[in-house]
Amino acid sequence: MTDLTHAPVHPPVHSSGTAHVVTGDEEAIAVAAELAGRFARGAAERDARRELPHAELAELSASGLLGITVPREHGGADVRTATLAEVVRLLATADPNIAQIPQSHFVYVNVLRQQGSAAQREFFFAEVLAGRRFGNAQSEAGTRHVQDYRTRLRSAEDGGFVLDGVKHYSTGALFADWITVLAKDPADRLVVAYVPAGAPGLTVVDDWEGMGQRTTASGTVRLEGVRVPADRVVPHHLTFTGPQLHGAHAQLLHAAIDVGIARAALTEAAEFVRTRSRPWFESGLDHASDDPLTIQRFGELEVSVRAAEALLGEAGRAVDRARERLDDETAAAASIAVATAKAFADPAAVGVADALFEVSGTRSALDSLNLHRHWRNARTHTLHDPVRWKIQHIGRYALNRTPPPRHGLI
């Protein structure tokens, strides 16, 4: 495991620049299912050793899945949002670390769709279809709150800009070809700068030490006098001036990761009980899987996971309906549907991952089995944003038809 006291500064890990182009929704789901089957086989060992998934991300890039949200007029499949959520869920059932790494990639492809110029969309969508990856430099530590950004984009004499700041929790940056940096421009407006990995003054430090999601490499990005051409800056502040789906889109993918973790934990629990658990002596049974009390508990857990999956699917469809006719009403309905899915998925993932040990017995707690990775992953990932605030927005909407705020986190 990496010594995080003296965490290394890694060189950029670039994709090959060649990728299959997925043509539609059904193919996207089929490709995701195939990759999930392969990624699952090494997930426990990668977590235990904190082996970063370089080879797996190369496969992900080559598969074409990173380009499935590119608009059709630019050569992409432009899959439905519900399909994208299912792709992320499938990857998360195999390895939620791998599913989380491209979450920001899809978010910042969406930013280009909404606010990028024609030239920016043409250039970056070609990059995405070639398999190149976006990683984020978004969050900052030590600020007043999560949306208080100190990173600044200063004007340069040549008409471009210069970036300075420090970012934390920069999931995907270590593996990225392009790093998307949230910053404030000279007018104190929120922008996204698309910076090539390896740009002078940009360093990515592998210092992530979370108890879960260990191989997302969500470390630190330092920006010291990084030059950014004007045509690599997108006016993200415009996203929030009218009806928008930015927050719903981003939060839906987070919910999909949680739902995937819940399904993976329950699947592994069932396999363990069938093959390794001993029946409780008072049951008089030969197999733990025949214990009616254990069967009852599995029934309860299956209901929880299926409910999370159903809410995720409905949330994706709500976002798709809003994409077809975007206004204040459809945007609010989509955000509330996604918030509902997330509010249910978070405790479901943590609860099912915890119940794995309840139904499996003492042996399941052995560190060598690494079954606790499901709980660690769920508990870590669900800390991204508090569901208690989502419940508040859901309640206001249900009672008074108050639309949720346009801040990008619901």
UniProtKB/TrEMBL annotation:
<protein>
    <submittedName>
        <fullName>SfnB family sulfur acquisition oxidoreductase</fullName>
    </submittedName>
</protein>
<dbReference type="Pfam" id="PF02771">
    <property type="entry name" value="Acyl-CoA_dh_N"/>
</dbReference>
<dbReference type="InterPro" id="IPR036250">
    <property type="entry name" value="AcylCo_DH-like_C"/>
</dbReference>
<dbReference type="InterPro" id="IPR013107">
    <property type="entry name" value="Acyl-CoA_DH_C"/>
</dbReference>
<dbReference type="InterPro" id="IPR006091">
    <property type="entry name" value="Acyl-CoA_Oxase/DH_mid-dom"/>
</dbReference>
<dbReference type="Pfam" id="PF08028">
    <property type="entry name" value="Acyl-CoA_dh_2"/>
</dbReference>
<keyword id="KW-0560">Oxidoreductase</keyword>
<comment type="similarity">
    <text>Belongs to the HpaH/HsaA monooxygenase family.</text>
</comment>
<dbReference type="InterPro" id="IPR037069">
    <property type="entry name" value="AcylCoA_DH/ox_N_sf"/>
</dbReference>
<dbReference type="InterPro" id="IPR009100">
    <property type="entry name" value="AcylCoA_DH/oxidase_NM_dom_sf"/>
</dbReference>
<dbReference type="InterPro" id="IPR013786">
    <property type="entry name" value="AcylCoA_DH/ox_N"/>
</dbReference>
<dbReference type="InterPro" id="IPR023922">
    <property type="entry name" value="S04_starv_induced_SfnB"/>
</dbReference>
<feature type="domain" description="Acyl-CoA dehydrogenase C-terminal">
    <location>
        <begin position="252"/>
        <end position="385"/>
    </location>
</feature>
<feature type="domain" description="Acyl-CoA oxidase/dehydrogenase middle">
    <location>
        <begin position="145"/>
        <end position="226"/>
    </location>
</feature>
<keyword id="KW-0285">Flavoprotein</keyword>
<dbReference type="InterPro" id="IPR050741">
    <property type="entry name" value="Acyl-CoA_dehydrogenase"/>
</dbReference>
<dbReference type="Pfam" id="PF02770">
    <property type="entry name" value="Acyl-CoA_dh_M"/>
</dbReference>
<feature type="domain" description="Acyl-CoA dehydrogenase/oxidase N-terminal">
    <location>
        <begin position="35"/>
        <end position="131"/>
    </location>
</feature>
<feature type="region of interest" description="Disordered">
    <location>
        <begin position="1"/>
        <end position="20"/>
    </location>
</feature>
<dbReference type="InterPro" id="IPR046373">
    <property type="entry name" value="Acyl-CoA_Oxase/DH_mid-dom_sf"/>
</dbReference>
